[in-house]
Write a structure and sequence with these properties.
mainly alpha
Length: about 100
């Protein structure tokens, strides 16, 4: 090893500051294609490994209609919209007894 090592070669190379300046100036042209290739490969690997199937679930409107039908059949009463914000999520100890 000794002086034949690459680090010792680069330290003795008088063009090293020029190489660093070139790399600094053209970094976007080097990094962007590399990042694109890495992203493309990662995207395809993820596609091969993961399951892209999304299970079916009913829409919010369908669930609401079913809930309203169940409430109507059970006779739980009508849904009451609170008149003020203070009537929402009231703890049992603070509820009004009309």
């Amino acid at each position: 090893m000794g002086n034949n090592c690459l680090i010792h070669f680069l330290q003795r190379l008088p063009m090293w500051p020029i190489v660093l300046a070139y790399a600094r100036a053209y970094a976007p042209y080097i990094v962007m294609p590399v990042a694109g290739v890495v992203g493309f490969v990662g995207y395809n690997i993820e596609g091969w490994l993961s399951d892209k199937h999304t299970p079916y679930s009913k829409s919010a409107m369908e669930r609401r209609e079913e809930r309203k039908e169940k409430e109507a059949l059970a006779g739980t009463g009508e849904f009451k919209i609170p008149a003020t914000i203070f009537e929402r999520n009231v703890s049992p100890g603070l509820e009004r007894k009309d």
